[in-house]
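>> received
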Amino acid sequence: MKAYLKKYMPYLIVFVFAVVSGICLFYINDDYIWFSVNKYEKLEPYRVPNGRYFSNMITLFFEENPFLRPFIYICTIFLMIVLLSGIINNFSEKMGMCTCFGLTFLILVPSTTYSEVINWFSGFTNYAFALIFTLVFLRFSNKLMFSDYQPKKISSLFFLITGVAGGLCVEHLTVYNIMFSIFVLIFMYVGKKKINLHTVAFLVGNLIGAFMMFSSSIYSSIYESGDDLGVRGITFSMPDIYMKIFRTITLYYVKEFWAVTVLTAVLMLFLYFKSDKKYKYAKICTLICIIFSVYSVFTSCFSDFYPTSAAMKIRAVEFSFNFLYIISLIYLIYAFTDGKNRTRLYIYLFSTLAVTAPFIFVSPVTARCFFVDYMFWILFAGELFMYTLNKYAKKFTDMIFMFFKASAVVLTVIICGIDITNKYYDSVRFDYINEQVADNAKNIQIIQLPYPEYAIDDFEDSKIFNPLLYNDVSYAEFIFVFHNIDADAENMNYSFISAQDYTLSLES
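>> returned
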């Protein structure tokens, strides 16, 4: 039993994380619209809000099957972490350590992105669910490109189906899947003089999905006359592109993911001292990585820089620093690594750019849009970590495994505690609203979530009571419908109370 637990403990940690995360999910924001979308005529425009036909279908299935929803969520997030870890492990014997590594860095994803994907039904079904298809193909492609693997032809049908499904989820992943499929075909033809049927099937599937998605009139109408359902837009104006880069891309691309930048800096510094060859610019590039990691920690954990002029000069400086960081990584990968590891590092690094580039032209851009970007940064850091470990530090494997196992356990306990607390107070606050409505209270007190960093708190913004959406729809209206609160949400008087103050009021 002891040996069994030691072998499978990493998976048990992931399972506990997945189960608690799945059970503690609660409705947020667009979830309420999806719940009522087929029940009210004025929500008819929201039934097909975009060309994400597959992920929209999954979202609706989530809403209509509350008993199956946690099970599907648990299986999906468990599979996502195992796939992520498997790609890092790259078919070696260190899967347990890579699983703990993957879970640790997933939990350390910036909290805003975490709350908008992992802890939100609508975000999860679009971004995390869609990522599964890409990770499956990426793992397959690694095996195809870097070994003598000969897959069975019949399995190409699987990649055709997953290609179509993956192409109907989120736009930037559809574009990425097409680009990466073409890269794999070129790589295989140049390196092995082969054209793989499975890659062609995945490419064709994504092209079919892309055609179905982008042929929707919604996108052309948004480009030509704006968006009726929200603030979505497409622009190719250079001033707008510059502003988008400064306001969003620079903020979210990598600097918020301080855990990855710190690990990368430490590994690059270690490789610098271990490297036999002293490349001309290796020292300055390593120094840039170290400085960038310090900058990342400070702006993420202490205080971000604030632009004080319309020119946003500080953002221009930060963008230039990001550019220098990427150039430095490109150079250091060439200087310190070799063979298959070097190729994979370049693939993951350029993948972060490929999944980010579309957001230069579209809006709105929010934290959840960078979830896939962060997953590629985890793959990049994981590949660099495994290369360094296998080449220079094999004797420390057990010690490092113990460190990541402890990190995974501690972070899982913390994040599960946060999720359980938020879930509890989300339930309590609607019971409390119903009590006040039943007592004909003139002012309704609304309890705020204890940890809004890890769950979107609908009531954090009082604008949800205003009819901001199309057809004079307000979020609060359908929040009250879902929770059976018999009150006019838009005309009620309300105030906010913290979870602590609510608890103290009960005790007094």
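>> Residues 397-438 form the longest helix (42 residues).
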